[in-house]
Amino acid sequence: MPSTGRCQHWLFTADLGFSTDLNVGGCVHDGFMTGIRDTLHEVRSRLLDALSFDAPTGWADDELLANAGALEALGRVVDAHRVAVAGEIAERSRIELGDQRLSTRKGCRSAVELLERVTQVSGFEARRRITLGAATRVRDEFAGEPGEARFPATAAALASGDVGADAAAAIIRELDRTRPYADPARLAAAEQALVDEATGSGDLAPVRCTADELRIQAQAWATFLDPDGVEPNDERAMRRRGFRIGRSARDGLIPVTGELMPEVAAKLTRLFDAHLSPRVGGGFQTDEDRALAAESGEDRTPDQQRHDVLAAIIDTAARSGEHPTIGGAAPTVLVSVRASDLAADRGVAHADGIDTPISLRAARHMICTGGTQTITFDDDGRIIELGSLERCFTAHQRRAITLRDGGCIIPGCTIPAAWTEIHHVTAHTDGGPTHPDNGVLLCWFHHRTIDTSGWLIRMIRGVPHVRPPRWLDPGGTWRPSTKSPTRLADQHERPPTAHAA
């Protein structure tokens, strides 16, 4: 979008124990900004000179809190302009502009990528700013006159620095869902009421709400504006359905968010119930259930068990051969790790599609399940040797092992054979062959923790034997283990002396 040639005047004020009062004017002509960038650099420089990073350690309690509020007030002003800039970048990168999109002309796929590269913020933060910018940006009308922002009260409070970006996001996120159904007058009243609560203005809001408190209030308003929102609505549910996998790890875990259609949630819940009930969740457990749970040493929470069931479902789907291929092959996660790190048990591995490194323990788990391929580089990074794929159990071998084991061989585990992985009892690195006599069925959880859980597995003439952890069985008794109904029937029909042997 070409520039209108209008002038912009920005005011920055801060009270951080020193005096800064700047009235800055800068003009925008033909998309070229003069003066504003230099002034922003000057403000940044003066702030760095006036306030050292470790200054808070020398402040008194009241001074510390006062300056925290003053810094936040300054940050709100900066955030407001960050949002405005993001919204304008998105506006000039609209899809309908084609090759004239700003993002395209700068060699980026989207406004989000362009903002990421210019600011070095995360994709999540770039999308948040663009969403806020679009909702609070003055819209261009057909007659050429500026129109009203989609959320004018929030836009005004954000621009004045009275409301922060997180509070504005809480208002917009909740109320925007009701826009297609809510009465416009009621929607405007709800927005103004929430802005009043965020700014501490009005008789009903003597104290400013935090962003989290505001989110709760906004959810209450959304329910009031769209009372039918709690009723089943297939069209609305189809629009809102979604599943998102986060990119950044939190304490080593990737967050997952989303909303499932009711029938999809029902199917997933039934799968969980089939493999987690009745041993988890308490209530009506039989003596046999309790004995099996005690025998298996189960100490996972229900949430952890649901995670592990989901992991098994994903592995089963990937093996099924019923999904689209990628590059002519079944969907396969590539994990790269240096051989020297594996040998020294030091470092991390990397899985394609996820930015967060994975542990060497996780890498060994995936190697045991999916095989390895050795790639040798020279000092300059050139590939000089490409080994063949090793250590993958074939479909025929899996069927044979499944008939023998019948499911995860850890006593008390209810995960069926179709959802299990094949574990090399003697690791390939230790000379263990990829042969049914060296492979056993383990569920995702027991395979992932086999080196640390205390469970031990050995093969005796091709038959799996397990020994529980010492705290479960101080005597350390080895027992043959199978879930195969035919093998169990054979065991029951054997004479007692033969069975004991």
Can you give a write-up of this model?
By secondary structure, the chain is α+β, with helices and mostly antiparallel strands. It has three domains: about 5-230, no CATH class; about 335-390, no CATH class; about 395-500, no CATH class. About 45% of the residues lie in helices and about 10% in strands. It is built from 19 helices and 14 strands. It has helices at about 35-50, 60-90, 100-105, 110-120, 125-135, 150-160, 165-175, 185-200, 210-225, 235-240, 260-275, 285-295, 300-320, 340-345, 360-370, 395-405, 445-450, 485-495, 495-500; strands at about 5-15, 20-30, 30-35, 240-245, 255-260, 335, 350, 375, 385, 420-425, 440, 455-460, 465, 480. The strands form six sheets. A three-stranded antiparallel beta sheet has the order 1-2-3. Helix 2 (about 60-90) crosses helix 5, helix 5 packs across helix 7 and helix 7 (about 165-175) runs parallel beside helix 9. The radius of gyration is 31 Å and the shape is elongated. This is DUF222 domain-containing protein. InterPro entries: DUF222, HNH_nuc. Pfam families: DUF222.
Secondary structure elements and pairings:
Elements: E1 7-15, E2 19-29, E3 32-34, H1 36-50, H2 61-91, H3 102-105, H4 111-119, H5 123-136, H6 152-159, H7 165-176, H8 184-199, H9 211-225, H10 234-240, E4 242-245, E5 256-259, H11 262-276, H12 287-296, H13 302-319, E6 335-336, H14 339-344, E7 350-351, H15 360-370, E8 375-377, E9 383-386, H16 395-405, E10 421-424, E11 439-442, H17 444-448, E12 456-460, E13 463-467, E14 479-480, H18 485-493, H19 496-500
Antiparallel strand pairs: 1-2, 2-3, 4-5, 6-7, 8-9, 10-11, 12-13, 13-14
Protein name: DUF222 domain-containing protein
Organism: Agromyces mariniharenae
Domain HNH nuclease: 396-448
